[in-house]
Automatic annotation (TrEMBL):
<dbReference type="InterPro" id="IPR000182">
    <property type="entry name" value="GNAT_dom"/>
</dbReference>
<keyword id="KW-0012">Acyltransferase</keyword>
<keyword id="KW-0808">Transferase</keyword>
<dbReference type="Pfam" id="PF00583">
    <property type="entry name" value="Acetyltransf_1"/>
</dbReference>
<dbReference type="InterPro" id="IPR050832">
    <property type="entry name" value="Bact_Acetyltransf"/>
</dbReference>
<protein>
    <submittedName>
        <fullName>Putative acetyltransferase</fullName>
    </submittedName>
</protein>
<dbReference type="GO" id="GO:0016747">
    <property type="term" value="F:acyltransferase activity, transferring groups other than amino-acyl groups"/>
</dbReference>
<feature type="domain" description="N-acetyltransferase">
    <location>
        <begin position="18"/>
        <end position="177"/>
    </location>
</feature>
<dbReference type="InterPro" id="IPR016181">
    <property type="entry name" value="Acyl_CoA_acyltransferase"/>
</dbReference>
Length: 202
């Protein structure tokens, strides 16, 4: 098991054995197949009929600062998520995407991926602002993001072409408070620790 692999054993209606772990090169075929599924194509801006070679290439080009995660049940890849911190003066911000396999919708996998992404963003990377794009007719995704505190900031008219119709897209964002400093240990406790590590009794 990877160091950061997490398996759900007792999480309500979640599929038994649901595991979140880092994307591996060996996931490429299932990752590619997931990207071609109708609901995943409908909810994202990529072009259908990309080749497996293109998918492998794009996996290889994922920026090292991006966290690419997959959800699996046994050997089946049932979902994916990516969190990309930004750089320079946007280093406090990040963007992310989530997709769940069409056959596994409505079983809590999107919510589980979301919880993990937000924990990473808030408690490990210290991102203040998270943002995403979602098509205006993607009811499931909009409901999911709203539940986690995302608000619509901008409506982009006719942002993407889908089956001959120009679809609007929303930019949504959520802010998070800065991380608190740890409570400072009392000076007397530090002195006692130092004395003990020197082998002398206080
Ligand atoms: C959006 C998506 C990630 C949700 O994943 P999921 O695993 O089906 O969602 P969950 O079962 O975890 O549900 C989480 C919440 O999403 C919302 N939701 C899920 N399906 C919904 C639907 N059909 N209609 C309305 N809300 C829905 C609900 O608010 C739900 O909360 P609840 O559990 O308290 O009821 C999934 O539908 C998907 O991958 N779609 C295709 C790709 C895509 O559109 N990705 C998003 C691009 S922006």
């Amino acid at each position: 098991m990877d160091q950061h692999e997490k398996t759900e054993s007792d999480s309500g209606s979640l599929p038994e054995g649901l595991t979140l772990r880092a994307l591996r090169p060996s996931d490429a075929e299932q990752y590619h197949a997931l990207l071609q599924l109708p609901a995943v194509v409908d909810g994202n801006p990529h072009v259908p009929f990309e080749t497996l070679a293109q998918t492998r290439e794009s996996i290889g080009k994922i920026d090292p600062t991006t966290i690419a995660m997959v959800a699996t049940v046994g050997d089946t890849l049932v979902g994916m998520a990516q969190l990309s911190p930004m750089k320079g003066r946007r280093a406090h911000a990040g963007s992310f995407s989530i997709s769940v396999h069409d056959a596994w919708h409505g079983r809590g996998i999107g919510r589980r991926l979301m919880v993990e992404l937000l924990d990473l963003a808030d408690n490990w990377l210290g991102l203040r602002r998270l943002e995403l794009n979602v098509f205006a007719d993607n009811r499931a995704a909009l409901a999911l993001y709203r539940k986690f505190g995302f608000e619509i900031e901008v409506r982009q008219r006719g942002a993407v072409l889908r089956r001959g119709v120009l679809i609007d897209s929303f930019m949504m964002a959520r802010f998070h408070e800065p991380a608190p400093l740890m409570a400072a240990p009392a000076t007397s406790a530090l002195k006692a620790d130092a004395t003990q590590s020197n082998g002398t009794q206080p």
